[in-house]
């Protein structure tokens, strides 16, 4: 690790800090005679969740997403404690001070000095030809990546008799966002075939005849059709579609949509050139406009509405993007993709290729229960 | 294909059109007693380029990028003919009318009714620990993706004795852009290890112990340090870094940086609220500002300058992005990435992991020679 320039001492220290923080939480709970099961990431499952009255994640925001991913009960509280405040923002966790004084948090819970917060989550329906409604269960089978791809293909060809499958409700709920886009990892630019579906088949079945060096293209535009709130279908080509919750509006969605001070300044300069601004174009004005604009991208995790944004839309003769983003209650997407996925909270993915149709919406039954401590 | 909803009839028709267009070009050349070698993508190599006085690509912009990728001679003209005008924008090709009247283009060339155009290209130097300065040559070996990964690892461990390698000039020249970012395809979110380098090693060596379903995370922020024009090093976290040429300023870079009419409208509304605009905020003003702003992102392919842009910069306590984009003569990047690549023109990639340092610049010796016909 040192040879690679990695900071082994730093790694060890962060592990020590995390371990100490976890012990603090467990001790605080047991001191109150609360029964605690401490499970690591790989042992965490729905049976454990059923056993518990409440779930506490000890880690960063990623651990909180993982904790939430196995909770489907609207009345099972999930609480995050940030055990790595140096590295994680902890948006989804309790304020950082409780990491070292967890008994204080427990006292507030006992005294009712908190309120319940329901973070709305997104559900997904999948239908259409050749869909694969569950990730292949590799946990038990431990397939290699190549075997994994073949498993997907075998499953798909077996299912071809049931060409049209009715909408399947996927066994996931997105706490941050659903992202739809080309996987990119197995794009083949080498088979020069106009119809990507053909190349996809050729590529997978004749793996060896493609120059794998062309496979690592990072940027392949995603091609799909989108209908917002049951509106007209629109063909789009972009770097992907992000549909987030209020919780997720602070996450990846924010980074996709925020505008830099530098860009706002240039835009206002051009506006001034065309007609002038009443006030001088100074840093203060640019900062105010930048802050207001970027803040308008955020909304409450408890609002049962989604925010969709199209990432880097490609606008030309064929493709248009009437609205690059906006609020909605329902988003439907028809894949025309080659090798795409729907990725939930950056951690679980589903194939989403040509022929698949996804319906994306919020059902308040899927909300995640957490707490907001009084300050 | 029909079962998947793919348009087989359309595929066949586009192939027919392309084939007819290629025949037209070849016939036009042979009618002038010009010796023509017609090669398919897989047969195209540097020997063929050496044989030729000029290279004509028949396809879309992607084919032109491929044609240019084997030409390193500043005085070997490369001309693109768009044989698929329905599907390709043809930015890098001759105007579409010459596709069906190629003799007209030839006549202009004979009569000198054209000028030479030199499209500047980017060169890359790579140095640092554990670098792999060439893509593993899979063309001959036809390795599977898993074997490819292992080959990269074996090579890297063998090279550890030469820990610091002097700058290697990579055997590629970017006509559009160099993109640096996480590969994403083999990220492992499952090994909860704070130091990504450790997980990368564990992941590759203990492949089976990771749940591959977590591997398909599409979004992993790229972490690196950047120095522009020998300026101070800045740590950044983002969705990747794009460094383009004037040619590439119309390509992916444009899609990364352009601002939508919808966003300009909202920004101007906020500016108006803070101080007002002299002119009414109407569609016409918004359109003018939008057009001016987006046009400012484009520049001439012949200008020997690069344009860098940081895609979705993450701004927090640790990371900053003083300038999200700008012109430069030189960009240096130090990778702190887990499993990243440098991707040239969307087609060729180089590993770019923790310890590697890239220097990116334009040398006018690397320019690509093409023609601009008089209209």
TrEMBL record, chains A, B:
Keywords: Kinase, NAD, NADP, Transferase. Its EC number is 2.7.1.23. One of its GO terms (molecular function) is NAD+ kinase activity. It comes from Scytalopus superciliaris. GO terms for biological process: NAD+ metabolic process; NADP+ biosynthetic process. It is an enzyme of class 2 (transferase). GO terms for cellular component: mitochondrion. SUPFAM superfamilies: NAD kinase/diacylglycerol kinase-like. Coiled coil: none annotated. It holds the Pfam family NAD_kinase. This is NAD(+) kinase. Gene3D superfamilies: Probable inorganic polyphosphate/atp-NAD kinase, domain 1 (3.40.50.10330), Probable inorganic polyphosphate/atp-NAD kinase, domain 2 (2.60.200.30). Belongs to the NAD kinase family.
